[in-house]
């Protein structure tokens, strides 16, 4: 994927400061490069979670944000197929993050993170930049950008996995 999307990833890195290796690592871990994005209706999943008393405060706003994505025309309800907890797209954005960070990198007038790898990768970089990614700084544990990886996913194990994967990719010839 680094080779296939090389010129695009370079443009994304120029704009947002996030290295291609980090984006490809997240993309691979989240959906196997867009192959496994989930099989659940996002509005339906979020409606169920919004009324599950354990975490309704978290998921009610996500349901409303999913409806806003539909309302603004980025995706239709039937196109919003994702993970069981409402994540959408090739890098698995919750609707609130989708509304805040999704970009139309292709320039077609829609922020489609399901069908467009370019939009998904650029949006992921925009998300990381939005949470303080510092270009040229390390992403490994203890590095300036490791905490930003934990904004993507709070799990320390996940952040370490992305950091390790990205470091391995950076060493590939």
Describe this protein's structure.
α4 crosses α5 and α5 packs across α6 (117-130). The chain has a two-stranded antiparallel sheet. It is globular and about 45 Å long. The protein is an all-alpha fold and 173 residues long. The longest helix is centred in the middle third of the chain and has 17 residues, at 56-72. The chain has 8 helices and 2 strands, in the order ααβααβαααα.
Keywords:
173 residues; mainly alpha; two-stranded antiparallel ribbon; 8 helices
Write the layout of secondary structure elements.
Layout: H1 6-16, H2 20-31, E1 40-41, H3 42-50, H4 56-72, E2 81-82, H5 95-101, H6 117-130, H7 146-152, H8 156-171
Antiparallel strand pairs: 1-2
Helix pairs in contact: 1-6, 2-8, 3-4, 4-5, 5-6, 7-8
* Range of strand content: under 5%
Q: How do the SSEs run, as a string of H and E? A: HHEHHEHHHH
The helix content, as a percent range, equals 40-55%
Structural class: mainly alpha
């Amino acid at each position: 994927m680094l080779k296939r999307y090389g010129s695009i990833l370079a443009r994304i890195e120029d704009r947002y400061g996030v290295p291609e290796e980090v984006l490809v690592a997240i993309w691979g871990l989240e959906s196997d490069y867009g192959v496994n994005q989930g099989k659940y209706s996002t509005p339906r999943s979020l409606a169920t979670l919004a009324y599950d008393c354990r975490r309704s405060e978290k998921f009610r706003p996500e349901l409303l944000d999913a409806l806003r994505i539909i309302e603004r025309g980025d995706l239709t309800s039937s196109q919003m197929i994702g993970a069981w907890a409402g994540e959408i797209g090739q890098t698995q954005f919750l609707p609130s993050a989708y509304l805040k960070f999704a970009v139309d990198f292709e320039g077609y007038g829609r922020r489609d993170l399901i069908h467009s790898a370019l939009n998904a990768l650029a949006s992921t970089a925009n998300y990381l930049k939005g949470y303080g990614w510092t270009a040229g700084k390390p992403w490994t544990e203890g590095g300036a950008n490791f905490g930003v990886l934990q904004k993507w996913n709070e799990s320390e194990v996940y952040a370490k996995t992305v950091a390790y994967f990205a470091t391995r990719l950076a060493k590939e010839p």
